[in-house]
Amino acid sequence: MSKELNFKQELTAAFGQPISENPTQVMVEAAYRHHGLDWRYLTIEVGPDDLETAVSGAKAMGFQGFNCTIPHKVKVIEYLDGLGESASLMGAVNCVVRKDGKWIGENTDGKGFLASLRELTDPQGKKVVIFGAGGAARAIGVEVALAGATEIMIVNRSAGRGEELTTLLDDKLPVSASFIPWEKTFTIPSGTDVLINATSIGLFPDLEARLDLDLDSLSPDTVVADVIPNPPDTNLVRDARAKGCQVIDGLGMLVNQGVIGIKHWTGVDPDPKVMRAALEEVFG
Ligand code: NDP
Q1: Which of 8, 73, 75, 184 is catalytic?
Q2: Is residue 122 scored above 90 in pLDDT?
Q3: 180-221, pLDDT tens digit by residue?
Q4: Closest to 76 (Cα-Cα) out of 53, 99, 109
Q5: Distance from the alpha carbon of residue 197 to the mean position of ligand 1, in angstroms
Q6: Which of 111, 153, 157 to mutate to test the pocket of ligand 1 (most atoms within 8 A of CB)?
Q7: Which residues sit opposite 224 in a β-bridge?
């Protein structure tokens, strides 16, 4: 299998359709141009056997940092000098920053989500339901708990992953976490403040896919968030809007993790609107 094919498969898995350009690169470079920053964001494929050399090479070549994705998010930690708090709790890094000559690993996925959520509500003291228990759910769960949510309910199809995430949240964070196996139509508990889809249900090309939940139990007072970036207008987003809920789509999380990365690397707070417009163009 050629390297090019591997890379394209990664992009396809993340965004649900073959995409010739890395959307994150397009988004970040749009911000660099807009702010007159003489910086570049490159997409470089690195195989698992070359990861250590690539991390040293990035330092030798004067990189200020890098993002990394599957399959490197856990393994890369061995080659870094330190971790931010949430990356350490999650055991996964997607953004590396050079600070005083040292590589520090951060996880900006959950922080990006949190920034989007805070545009609508403060998670402090809130009851949160999260569908999913994969990487996105873990990043969001840890960050929402660090931000002061009091209760998190994990709803997941496979019990193993669901229980593992619930235990992590319950044991390591100041939140009360519970796990519900997703075996039938889910009724949203009354008093749920925030409901989050962190599964891949709804990702292109499964445009008709719907979360198996009882929409009659969705209150207009619940803030609803979906992580799916492509298409951002999922059935959940549409159903929740029709119910009168305030809604966050998956582009918000993607844009905000980019905003945080750029701030880490360059010190500049980029304009999220420019970045979102660049992404919308990529996804057509
Ligand atoms: P993972 O593969 O780690 O986890 C996938 C999750 O979805 C699991 O909980 C899985 O359940 C669940 N799932 C998948 N299909 C179904 C189904 N048919 N019915 C019920 N549950 C299902 O993926 P990630 O967590 O890394 O990513 C999840 C989504 O988040 C992706 O679509 C990705 O595009 C998006 N994402 C968006 C970001 C953004 O910035 N907007 C950032 C990161 C991710 P089970 O454990 O039972 O298999």
Answers
A1: 73
A2: yes
A3: 999 999 999 999 999 999 999 999 888 899 999 999 999 999
A4: 53
A5: 9
A6: 157
A7: 195, 247
